[in-house]
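Hi P.,

Sorry for the delay on this. The queue was packed all week, but I finally got your sequence through. Input first:
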Amino acid sequence: MAATMPDTTADALLDQIALSTAVHACTTSPTNHAGIAAVTVGNYTLTAGDGGGDWTIANGDTSGRKLTLGAQSGNNGTGTGAANFLAFTDGTTMHYVCDGDGDTVNSGSPWTIAAFDVAEVRDPSAI
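Then the structure:
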C-alpha cells in the first residue's frame, strides 16, 4: 500500500512557519532566535497565519502543499551585507531558515523580498 498524507497534516507543519511575524535577511544562518541579532541586515514585520496577508498555503507545485510568502517592500536595511539567508521568527522563537537571494542589503537603503515559496511538503507517494 502506498504511503499517504492528508493535506491537513502538511498544512499543520506549514502553519507553524506561518506563525512568524518577522523575516530577517541574514548574512549567515543563525542557529537560534538570539543569534539573529548578530547576523541580520534588515527585516520586515509579517502578519501571522495563512490568508492573513503575507502567507498563503496552497497546493504544491509538484504535489503536496506549499507555503508562499508575499512580496515585501518599503523597508530600509539596518546593516550592510549579503542576504544569504532568511530567518523567520515570532519574536521569541525562530521557526525556519531558508536560503536568501544573496543580494546585498545596504544600511539605510530600500531592499525588497520578491514573493516566493518558502517551503513545500511533497506527498509521500511522490518521494
